[in-house]
Design a protein that fits this description.
CATH class: Alpha Beta
Helix content: 25-40%
Mean pLDDT: 96
CATH topology: TIM Barrel
Number of domains: 1
Strand order of the largest sheet: 1-9-8-7
CATH architecture: Alpha-Beta Barrel
Number of helices: 9
Distance between the termini: 18 Å
């Protein structure tokens, strides 16, 4: 599948699109909120779906996303916080079944599923291994795991991810979240949260250019690259995403 950039395997977008404060910045005046997605589509071919983290959407909502987007558009859904932040991955068989039954309706449109672990969850090999066993019941989905506790940055964890072809999320946050550029799958998943202020810092050309070079190297290795900007304040995210995409294309 050819991405918006024209580079196969490169997918760059933002973490969500329903931001009213993008009005007049990214969304032109006159574009109403119910048409934000349609405008987003003019610039991007993928999005990280934050809404699924907070609650499971209605079947009609999922059907609407499919209907309103072209066949080559991709959604990276975020696993429910009920599973990760409330149940802490314990006794979540039924919740996983509900989640994947719903999003199985759009599996042809899905990129990797983002699993964001809570900051209060320290490394627990047995717990995570059991969770991975549950994920194996849904082999048609791919997974990327973002950690928020530094104890996860260890060889045993990276080895388990590599064995299961699960990506470790490279989370750029100026050191505010655990960071490693370990690649553990046949795709790379990056999240840009902002350097100085979480969700509220604009990335410099120098910072983006450094990542552009890394992305080109990963693409040349035959890996897909998924990159999402979560610095939504002041509309930084969509513009940084477009900047990064342009830089990558210029280097290939």
């Amino acid at each position: 599948m050819e991405a918006k950039s024209g580079l196969p395997g490169l997918f760059i977008g933002t973490s969500g699109w329903s931001y009213k404060h993008w009005q007049g910045v990214f969304y032109p005046e006159g574009v109403t909120q119910d048409r934000y997605l349609e405008h987003y589509l003019t610039q991007f071919d993928c999005v990280e779906l934050n809404a699924s983290f907070y609650h499971l959407p209605l079947k009609t909502t999922v059907a609407g996303w499919i209907r309103r987007t072209p066949a080559n558009f991709r959604f990276c859904t975020k696993l429910s916080r009920y599973i990760t932040h409330q149940k802490y991955l314990v006794d979540v068989e039924e919740a996983l079944k509900n989640y994947f039954t719903l999003f199985g309706r759009m599996k042809a449109r899905l990129g990797p599923v983002l699993v964001q672990l809570p900051p209060g969850l320290a490394y627990d090999e047995e717990l995570f291994s059991r969770f991975v066993e549950m994920l194996r019941l849904y082999p048609e989905f791919r997974y990327a795991v973002e950690v928020r506790h530094p104890s996860w940055l260890r060889d045993e964890f990276f080895q388990l991810l590599s064995k299961e072809d699960i990506a470790f999320v490279i989370a750029d946050s100026g050191g505010q979240f655990p960071f490693s550029e370990m690649v553990t799958a046949d795709f790379v998943y990056l999240r840009f949260h902002g350097r100085e202020l979480l969700y509220a810092s604009n990335y410099s050309e120098e910072e983006l250019n450094q990542y552009a070079g890394k992305i080109v190297s990963w693409l040349k290795e035959g890996k897909e690259v998924w990159a999402f900007f979560n610095n939504d304040y002041a509309g930084f995210a969509p513009f940084n995403a477009m900047q990064l995409r342009e830089m990558v294309c210029a280097k290939v």
